Each structure stands twice: as structure tokens, then as C-alpha cells.
Amino acid sequence: MSPGIVILVLAVVAAAGFGLHRRRVDGRFAGHARTHAAGEPGTGPAPAPAVAEDVPHEPSAWERLSASVPHAELGERATLVQFSSAFCAPCRTTRVVLADVAERHDGIAHVEVDAEQHLALVRELDVRRTPTTLVLDRAGREVTRAAGAPRREQVLAALPLTEESR
Fold first, then answer.
1. CA 77, 68, 83, 123 torsion: positive or negative?
2. pLDDT (tens digit, 9 = 90+) per residue, 92-130?
3. Which long-range contacts (CB under 8 A, 24 or more apart) does 141-144 make?
4. How many domains does the structure of the chain reveal?
5. Per-residue pLDDT tens for 9-57?
6. Which of 30, 126, 157, 158 ranks highest by number of CB atoms within 10 Å?
7. Is 110 contained in some domain?
8. CB neighbours of 132 closer than 8 A, spacing ≥ 6?
9. Does residue 27 form part of some domain?
10. Domain for residue 49, yes or no?
11. What CATH number has the domain bearing residue 131?
12. Under the phi-then-psi rule, with left for phi > 0, alpha for psi from -120 to 50, and beta for the rest, what region is 126?
């Protein structure tokens, strides 16, 4: 077999593997690392520091967002923050899904942020691609996030909704 054929086959296998991986994780919400105690992923909120003065206040996702996007409003129960860009096709799908969820469920707000216009915020919140959706609780703390276009069912599962409201 010629070296060109081998390289072609390897490239096709690598591209297919990457595509399958991306399809599996795209739009899936993952827990936020800051909600876990150090060294114990998934165990719940980190304990409060012994002396509050020793730890500087780290602004919540909402505090950072509202400083950059003053017209944004926090939802009574949760806020869906979508980072989009102008030429992002999945961003349009995500906008429709998130707006629909916010419209159908009381206390849920949807805020869309143009990532290109708010690069400092993108860096602060570690947004690496568009669309990225952050789910904030009623206090404005990030609960979870998804990179890629989430399906409606994934968004509903990530929200703090009661069973009756689904």
C-alpha cells in the first residue's frame, strides 16, 4: 500500500473519530467546577472559608455579565445566557430553543450576548466557542454550561424547574 493511501485512511479515521466525539458532547450541559469542593468532584458546594476577609470576593457570572451588558435582567428562577457570534449557524438554533424555554416557563430569562462585542467578558467567563449557554441560578451564580447547540430537553433538564412546570 502506498504511503499516500495510508495517510488518507488515517486522516479519514481521525476526522470520523473527532466528528463522533463532537456529536456526542455538543450541547451537553456539564457541572461547573467551582461548585465542587477541592479534590472532591461532584460532592456539592465548597465549604465557606474560615475567615471571610482572607478570601477576596470573586464576582459571580451575573455580576460580570451585568457590568458588560447593563440591559440584561436576571430571571426569578434561572437565567439562560447565550454567547453567540454573527456567522454562527448553531447560534440561531440555540436562540430559538432558549427563547422558547424562557417564554414557556415562568421566572426563566434568556439573555443573548454577542461574543465579538464583549471579548473581555468572554475571557472572564472562559467561553471558548459559540454558541455557549450558561445556566445561572436565581442569585446569578453559574450552575452549568453547554458548548454547542443544546436540545430543548437538555435545557429543561439543566434548569431548576419543578416537575409540574415541565
1. negative
2. 999 999 999 999 999 999 999 999 999 999 999 999 999
3. 141/60, 141/61, 141/62, 142/32, 142/34, 142/60, 142/61, 143/32, 143/35, 143/78, 144/29, 144/30, 144/31, 144/32
4. 1
5. 888 988 888 877 776 777 677 765 443 333 333 434 444 445 555 667 7
6. 158
7. yes
8. 82, 83, 145, 146, 147
9. yes
10. no
11. 3.40.30.10
12. left
Is 50 contained in some domain?
no
**Sign of the C-alpha dihedral, residues 151, 70, 115, 147?**
negative
Q: Domain residues for 154?
A: 3-31+57-165
The answer for residues whose C-beta is within 8 angstroms of residue 84's C-beta and 6 or more apart is: 91, 94, 95, 112, 113, 114, 115, 130, 131
Residue 41 preceded by cis peptide, ω within 30: no
Backbone phi, psi, residue 87, to 5°: -105, 25
- Cα dihedral 95, 101, 105, 108 sign: negative
